[in-house]
Amino acid sequence: MTGTLPTTVTQELGPDALLTAYRTMRTVREFEERVHKEFAGGDIPGFVHLYAGEEASAAGVCMHLDDRDAIASTHRGHGHCIAKGVDVGGMMAEIYGKATGSCKGKGGSMHIADLSKGMLGANGIVGGGPPLICGRALAAKQQGSGGVAVAFFGDGASNQGTTLESLNLASIWNLPAIFVAENNGYAETTSSTWSVATDDIADRAAAFGMPGVIVDGFDFFAVHEAAGEAVARAREGGGPTLIEVKFTRYFGHFEGDQQLYRGDEVAHARENLDCLKRFRTRVTEAGQLTNEQLDGVDTEVAEFIDQAVTEAKAAPKPGPDQLLTDVYVAY
Amino acid sequence: MARSITYREAINEALEQEMERDPRVIVMGEDNAGGEGSPGEMDAWGGVLGVTKGLYGKFPGRVMDTPISESAFIGAAIGAATGGLRPVAELMFIDFMGVCFDQIFNQAAKFRYMFGGKAVTPVVIRTMWGAGLRAAAQHSQSLLPVFTHIPGLKVAAPSNAYDAKGLMISAIRDDDPVIFAEHKLLYDTAAEVPQESYTIPFGEANIVREGSDVTIVAIGRMVGMAAQAADELAGSGIQAEIIDPRTTSPLDTDTILESVENTGRLVVVDESNPRCSLACDIGAMVAQEAFGSLRAPIRMVTGPHTPVPFSDALEDLFIPDAAKIAGAVKKAVDYGG
């Protein structure tokens, strides 16, 4: 599964871009580890699904995107939000159900969105995002903006009719869409080796007349390269791509999951495959960044997330008047 | 100069005028042009009942045939609406919402609230509803109560060609998701419809006929049935007031309540199945808000609690008609007397 990539790929990213990539992944990791801890302490309400372990996917894809582009996410959406530039303080406040949250406390972890950033929302419905992304890609095409749209979805959603229909529609309409199947091995407790009829989700691309690629999701550079090709093809009018990103999630399906269905893959992945560790090894050995630079990012990010938590805890909850607002633009 | 066109032509004209006015308006649906990828002519159908016929040639690239893949293209219309377009998507029969309901009620309807007021989703989903075409159980339902139930959606159900045009133009200009329910038995009915563009505001009922003895609230095709009943009742000296809400969400409760306060009696006519129906909803609202004005129990005239049958002998029994409405009115008027 380990990708071997030409060194030219690393060379294409200068030190600033590499630091940005690392900061994004580190921010997601710190965010998720902290939410895990705070949830265990009983301070966070509702259902929370953590993205730790999968950071290279969001970061590797979203580095190619700009303000013209839109993404749709999943119930495991914090990483996609951060990588697409959603305000991290607002996200944390949203998870706490506070009035200062990204969605005024009305959405929560499963519905964090910021349309001004092209982030169409985490989504509580498995397979909810791909049709919407066809629409965003259609809008970009009609408007001639050069924009692309990316649907992140999991191995579970890869079996949903909405996803399969969207692959077909994107292909026949030749849409600037990218479908990123994040295969973390489990749909809740059910293994993708059992639930997905093909060997790989990427195999399904052939059925819809589009390129399908498999990448090692622990390798930022592998994701970055595959996404770069797909985004470039989409922007040039070459149509959609299906990218399967394979990795393992570090936590349970949701917080509170005892994970009795799992083997010992998490310990192995954290030790040997982890995207942050591999990134660090690669860029320091190539002499592109120093350990001191990366340690500096770690410290900054830890302080940043700590501040976000402190502010979220201190923020007010939405007032009663907020119950009835924001249902319609006008009614 | 008076000009009479059909309900079908009125909707087509509304679409054409709005597409002319606003380049963000696009039309998509199964066979909306008709013929995509086929060896013969494009625009072969203009939708299964010809409502979008002729738009394909007038607006290149903006009238799109879709595969029979409702979740994908209804979802795409919704997504495109968040991205700056104003799509009008056709869900051929309202019965087919079962295959794409998630995109409508969990996605489009909830974006604005879930996202703290930051989403705008100006999509119109046109769909054909109602019984009477011998189309049987999966092509004949009402289901308006299902959509009306959902916060975040608006629901329009025009009863005549004039309203169809004005409501469609309002729907396209509306920034919220709209379910635009076109009754399949009204497409060939004609009315005077101005050539120029006009809007009919949502949430503003039409008092179709004034009367002092009973209020009949009727929706869609049932407005015409109620008018027939009112003609018959007039012969018996009963003056019925008919109110057509035109949109069920928002609902013009004020007009209904004012009327019941004058007449003291309410008959609600809705071809939906009876449980949790618009008839129940409007009846309950009046019972709660105008109980003191009522001189008789509220009567509901609806389809029965069955699927819509195929055989004409049964379907005609399913659908409320003028006789049933008149019977309900007489019960209300005779109550206590």
Automatic annotation (TrEMBL), chain A:
Database matches in InterPro entries: DH_E1, PDH_E1_Alpha_Subunit, THDP-binding
One MF term in the entry's GO annotations: pyruvate dehydrogenase (acetyl-transferring) activity
Protein's UniProt name: Dehydrogenase E1 component
Cofactor or coenzyme needed: thiamine diphosphate
Native source species: Pseudonocardia asaccharolytica DSM 44247 = NBRC 16224
Keywords: Oxidoreductase, Thiamine pyrophosphate
Pfam families: E1_dh (PF00676)
Domain Dehydrogenase E1 component: start-end pairs: 24-320
GO biological process terms held by the UniProt record: pyruvate decarboxylation to acetyl-CoA
UniProtKB/TrEMBL annotation, chain B:
Occurrences of domain Transketolase-like pyrimidine-binding (ranges): 5-189
Origin superkingdom: Bacteria
Keyword Oxidoreductase: yes
InterPro entries cross-referenced by the UniProt entry: THDP-binding (IPR029061), Transketo_C/PFOR_II (IPR009014), Transketolase-like_Pyr-bd (IPR005475), Transketolase_C (IPR033248)
Keywords recorded for this protein, A-Z: Oxidoreductase
Gene Ontology terms for molecular function: magnesium ion binding; oxidoreductase activity
Record PANTHER family: ACETOIN:2,6-DICHLOROPHENOLINDOPHENOL OXIDOREDUCTASE SUBUNIT BETA (PTHR43257:SF3), PYRUVATE DEHYDROGENASE E1 COMPONENT BETA SUBUNIT (PTHR43257)
The protein, known as: Acetoin catabolism protein AcoB
Source species taxonomy: Bacteria, Bacillati, Actinomycetota, Actinomycetes, Pseudonocardiales
